């Protein structure tokens, strides 16, 4: 019988190229990067090398360092990182491409005798790895233009209300300002007559290892107190501003290919900074809308995570719990060597 790698991966999951992968996830500002760097340091002390694969949709772009809280050059020299600065800000990236790239990075890392660890909060990217993506229909130009015209006439608040009527589940998890995803959900409904949430629910995340494509350890760093996360978000936003975030966005605005409708410029913080620098809102409104959008991002990430019962939950506010999680990861690395 001819060797079938897909069949063998199903019968023997340890043979899957991503088998025994560790992923460190959590909402924005929860401490994922600090945790992963500390894990890499302790692993090195035990004679194990770790390389980090970024699972963050904004870190792929060059020139977007401050607003994305990108790992510093010093951190990247200490621990090799992948998936950072791989695209220009006018280029596009997808969950499907991420899944393909991870296969390459993981193989290269393991060939060097190191252990790959995914770190980030773009949960769609994780879903693409562990389950594959649901088959949502591609958008036709006619429908997209029609929805954009309606939004221009009625405003996105009215479009959000329209989405509530046809797909309340999706609408309830999207803020009014998330125009890209509101538009996409309306496009899917107009093309299929079926709510996007219903289409996605046909391949829900499951606690069963058999549902995943490979065995793994998913460590989720989440706060117990939401106000703790909000405080950290506000503090980090203030640090970003003092570090020159607005100057960073000004430089991006000078690039001929860059405009506010790009996926990169729709990233949290960058959209609001563009609005401020182009005179659409004042400084106070910018700070308020930027921190609010970041809080909404954190809320969406927590919604994704709470639908993943197989995750190893770690209280981000508990130092002892974080230390125990680090030990658990080190044990996992040893056992899967």
Could you walk me through the main structural features you see in this protein, from its secondary elements to its overall organization?
The protein has 337 residues and is an alpha/beta fold. The chain is 53% helix and 8% strand. It has a six-stranded parallel β-sheet with strand order 3-2-4-1-5-6, with helices on both faces. The two termini are 30 Å apart. The N terminus is likely disordered.
Summarize this, please?
This protein is α/β, with parallel strands linked by helices and 337 residues long.
Distance between the termini: 30 Å
Order of helices and strands: HEHEHEHEHHHHHHEHHHHEH
| Unreliable stretches | 1-11, 204-211
Radius of gyration: 21 Å
Task: Please report the number of helical segments.
Answer: 15
Task: Report the major sheet.
Answer: 6 strands, parallel
Search tags:
single chain, 337 residues, alpha/beta, six-stranded parallel β-sheet, 15 helices, 6 strands, 53% helix, globular, disordered N terminus
Which SSEs are present, and which pair or pack?
Blueprint: H1 5-11, E1 21-25, H2 32-45, E2 50-54, H3 73-78, E3 81-82, H4 95-111, E4 115-119, H5 123-130, H6 141-154, H7 156-166, H8 168-173, H9 179-192, H10 196-201, E5 216-222, H11 226-242, H12 245-253, H13 270-277, H14 283-306, E6 312-315, H15 319-335
Parallel strand pairs: 1-4, 1-5, 2-3, 2-4, 5-6
């Amino acid at each position: 019988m001819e060797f079938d790698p897909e069949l063998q991966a199903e019968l023997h999951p340890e043979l899957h190229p991503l088998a025994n992968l560790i992923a460190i996830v959590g909402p924005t500002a929860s401490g994922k990067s600090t945790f992963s760097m500390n894990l890499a340091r302790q692993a090195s002390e035990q004679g194990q090398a770790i390389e980090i694969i970024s699972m963050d949709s904004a870190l792929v772009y060059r020139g977007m360092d401050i607003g994305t809280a990108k790992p510093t050059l010093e951190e990247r020299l200490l621990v090799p990182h992948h998936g950072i600065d791989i695209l220009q800000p006018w280029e596009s990236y997808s969950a499907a491409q991420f899944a393909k790239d991870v296969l390459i990075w993981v193989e290269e890392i393991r060939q060097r005798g190191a252990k790959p660890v995914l770190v980030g909060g773009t949960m769609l990217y994780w879903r693409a790895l562990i389950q594959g993506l649901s088959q949502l229909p591609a958008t036709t130009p006619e429908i997209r233009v029609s929805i954009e015209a309606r939004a221009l006439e009625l405003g996105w608040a009215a479009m959000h209300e329209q989405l509530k009527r046809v797909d309340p589940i999706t609408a309830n998890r999207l803020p009014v300002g998330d125009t890209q995803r509101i538009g996409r959900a309306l496009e899917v409904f107009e093309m299929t007559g079926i709510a996007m949430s219903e289409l996605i629910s046909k391949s829900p995340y499951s606690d069963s290892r058999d549902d995943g494509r490979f065995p793994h350890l998913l460590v989720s760093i989440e706060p117990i107190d939401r106000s703790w996360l909000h405080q950290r978000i506000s503090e980090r936003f203030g640090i970003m501003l003092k570090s020159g975030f607005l100057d960073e966005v000004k430089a991006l605005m000078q690039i001929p290919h860059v405009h506010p409708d790009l996926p990169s410029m729709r990233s949290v913080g960058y959209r609001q900074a563009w609005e401020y620098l182009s005179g659409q809102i004042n400084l106070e409104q910018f700070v308020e809308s930027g921190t609010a959008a970041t809080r909404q991002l954190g809320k969406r990430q927590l919604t994704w995570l709470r639908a993943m019962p197989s995750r190893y939950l770690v209280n981000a506010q508990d130092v002892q719990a974080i230390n125990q999680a680090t030990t658990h990861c080190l044990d996992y690395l040893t056992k899967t060597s």
